[in-house]
Design a protein that fits this description.
The chain is of the alpha/beta class. It is about 30% helix and about 30% strand. The structure holds zinc ion. The site of zinc ion has 7 residues, from helix 6.
Length: about 200
């Protein structure tokens, strides 16, 4: 499976000049919701990710995603793993577990995002799970932006990765491309205007 091709086929791997949620600029933009709008594609990707996770032998009771970005990937992954699915969401800037979701003491929870960039939201979701008594056993995403280390890749963890080094991270592929600060962006230097896509850029 070539994840980048699947993103491109679904119009989810955009090329141009974009402003990411971090404020940095990039020539590329990933719009995972566009890949996951087709349930058959979502199922195929989640099943492949679930296979990798099962191979590792990691025990998982529940998948938890930070809303909104991780919801579709997490739900499909939970289905493929045969476990339940819950999510956390931001309220007044803070990641919280709402809507009557609970975790039992010691419940083994895998955090799932669509794309792991620095892993900030995934880490916050994990902290909320732990605050509720659960045990975060690992992290997962369809794609890894190359800042965090993942199982099955030689990529070293970069300084800006926020995920704990002692927990496994699973992703289908690494999507590595440069990001630039606005005052050091070669695309800006060429006179092009950066645009902000509809939602969070990864
Ligand atoms: Zn720029």
């Amino acid at each position: 499976m070539n994840l980048k091709e699947i993103y491109k086929e679904n119009g989810a791997f955009l090329e141009g000049h974009f402003i990411l949620s971090s404020g940095n600029h990039s020539q590329y933009y990933l719009q995972s919701a566009k890949v996951l709008e087709n349930p058959k594609t979502a199922e195929k990707l989640a099943t492949a990710l679930a296979e990798k996770i099962k191979e590792s032998g990691l025990e998982i009771d529940t998948v938890c995603s930070p809303a909104l970005g991780g919801l579709l990937a997490g739900y499909e992954l939970a289905r493929a793993l045969g476990v339940r699915f819950i999510f956390t969401e931001r309220k007044d800037g803070e990641m919280q577990m709402r809507r009557g979701f609970t975790v039992e003491k010691g419940e083994k929870v895998l955090i799932c995002e669509d794309i792991i960039t620095t892993g900030g939201s995934a880490l916050e979701a994990g902290k909320e799970v732990e605050a509720q008594g659960g045990e975060v056993v690992g992290f997962s995403a369809l794609a890894n932006r190359g800042f965090c280390a993942r199982v099955g890749s030689d990529l070293e963890q970069k300084e800006n990765c926020k995920l704990p080094k002692d927990k496994p991270m699973f992703a289908l592929e690494d999507f590595i491309f440069d990001i630039y600060s606005p005052d050091n962006c070669p695309l800006c230097a060429n006179g092009s205007q950066a645009i902000k896509p509809g939602s969070r850029g990864n």
